[in-house]
Amino acid sequence: MKILLAGGAGYIGSHTAVALLEAGHEVVVVDNYCNSCAESIKRVEELTGKSVVSYEADVKDKAKMLEIFQANSIDCVIHFAGLKAVGESVQKPILYYRNNIDTTLTLLECMAETGVHNFVFSSSATVYGDSSNNPPYEESMERGKCSNPYGWTKSMMEQILQDAAVANKELSVVLLRYFNPIGAHPSGRIGEDPQGIPNNLMPYIAQVAVGRRDKLTIFGDDYPTPDGTCRRDYIHVMDLAAGHLQAVEFAVQNKGTEIFNLGTGTPYSVLEIVRAFENSNGIKVPFEFGPRRAGDLPAFWADASKAREVLGWRTTYTLEDMCKDTWNWQKNNPQGYRK
Ligand code: NAD
Ligand code: UDP
Fold first, then answer.
1. Mean pLDDT score of the chain, rounded to an integer?
2. Are the CB atoms for 6 and 107 separated by under 8 Å?
3. The model scores a pTM over 0.90
4. What span, in angstroms and rounded, lies between the C-alpha atoms of 142 and 326?
5. How far is residue 166 from each of residues 102, 159, 203, 255, measured CA to CA in Å?
6. Exposure of 98 in the CB half-sphere (CA atoms within 13 A)
7. For residue 339, what pLDDT band results from cuts at 50, 70 and 90?
8. Please, which pLDDT band fits residue 288 given cuts at 50, 70 and 90?
9. Which atom, in ligand 1's list, is nearest to the CA of 103?
10. Phi, psi torsion values for 29, nearest 5 degrees
């Protein structure tokens, strides 16, 4: 199949490109590099020995996107092209609603005009909301009240895609609700390359370990959890990438909307992650406790049984793998993709 990866130069898109190419599919990447660079695609080609068709374009640009759809006979779209910084979304809600929702609508319009019927979407566990659902989260739970505009864009885009699939019986929509992706390709050639100060835990730990930051601040030590720090369901990005391969294969064989959690089903606390990183890599990660971060929930994790039963998808990487592969990427690329 020929699969269009909107936002395919980014962290999850580049790892998914490797998984798809290795399974024998062709990949077309469209990215405006607002949070990535073309170097990741070069490295995907180097890792797989295959070539990737790539376009520098804004996925909101309908005329350009239509040209791309017309020039390539696409079988399935995977939509990664979103802005994803929770804090920034509170400061710049309009930018987030415009970018995330407009990209989705543009892709749907181009698909309708060129006869493409399969759509896989990067959603998030954030759509389960702030307090209405108790973990482990199951796909059958109602979406909840999100605590920031980023989360609402995901919730709204899920609704838009579900409505589109109701109206168009040819359409197949797979909503993938990611939990906390971390790790990198075991080669250390591609990985997560945040711009500026990392918002997420694992990239922050990696930058402390490599000496780019002095110490980690752990946000809150008084949560109602065994060690007082928040618990999350961390998943290796290679397992997540494999989930996309299975989602694409599911999408082409089914119609309507299907939702899958992509998590391991096992939560770890912030302190457990710090200790696992230290023990896996033999490196100290200095940290201090700070106040809670607004909007953080004490604990959530996936019920991962549906993806296992329906897609036959299983996670195979351990927490130690996640820590080792993160460090392998960071130490070989201390400044990310920048030289
Ligand atoms: P990323 O920022 O590395 O990748 C997103 C890519 O989309 C980037 O390459 C960026 O340049 C591109 N992009 C954004 N807007 C665009 C536009 N208008 N036109 C063209 N390209 C555009 O992020 P990621 O971690 O790979 O996440 C991919 C998707 O998964 C995002 O939609 C994100 O919200 C979602 N997600 C990520 C996580 C996570 O923790 N990483 C968790 C849940 C969901
Ligand atoms: N966290 C932290 N310090 C940081 C970044 C994150 O203590 O510098 C905590 C955060 O409070 C949360 C967990 O690490 O409990 C995971 O945060 P992340 O932003 O990676 O993912 P989230 O689950 O919030 O999407």
1. 97
2. yes
3. yes
4. 34
5. 20, 11, 39, 10
6. 6
7. low
8. very high
9. 18
10. -105, 135
Angle between helices 93-114 and 149-167 (to 10 degrees): 20
- pLDDT digits 0-9 by tens, 17-37: 999 999 999 999 999 999 999
Sorted by sequence, the CB contacts under 8 Å of residue 265 that are 6+ apart come out as 136, 233, 301, 302, 303, 304, 305
CA of 257 to the centre of ligand 2 (A): 30
Query: Which runs of E-coded beta strand occur in the chain?
Result: 2-6, 26-31, 53-56, 76-79, 118-124, 172-178, 180-182, 216-219, 231-232, 234-236, 256-262, 268-269, 287-290
Answer whether 89's CB lies under 8 Å from 148's CB: yes
Distance (Å) from CA 179 to ligand 2 centroid? 12
Q: Is 263 left (phi over 0), alpha (psi -120 to 50) or beta?
A: beta
| Ligand 2 contact, 297 CB (< 6 A) | no
Question: In the beta sheet, which residues pair with residue 121?
Answer: 79, 175
Catalytic residue among 150, 178, 234, 268: 150
- pLDDT tens digits, residue range 173-228? 999 999 999 999 999 999 999 999 999 999 999 999 999 999 999 999 999 999 99
Q: 74 C-alpha vs ligand 1 centroid, how far in Å?
A: 20
199 lines ligand 2 (CB under 6 A): yes
Q: How confident is the model over 234-260, as a mean pLDDT?
A: 98
Q: How many C-beta atoms surround the C-beta of residue 312 within 10 A?
A: 10
Instruction: Please report the atom of ligand 2 found closest to the CA of residue 231.
Output: 15
Q: Based on the residue annotation, tell me whether 150 is a catalytic residue of this protein.
A: yes
The residue whose C-alpha atom lies closest to atom 12 belonging to ligand 2 is 230
Residue-wise pLDDT tens digits, 46-74? 999 999 999 999 999 999 999 999 999 99
Q: How far is the CA of 230 from the centre of ligand 2 (A)?
A: 8
Give CA–CA dist 10/41, Å, rounded: 9
Residue 287: which residues within 8 A CB-CB, separation 6 or more? 208, 215, 216, 217, 218, 274
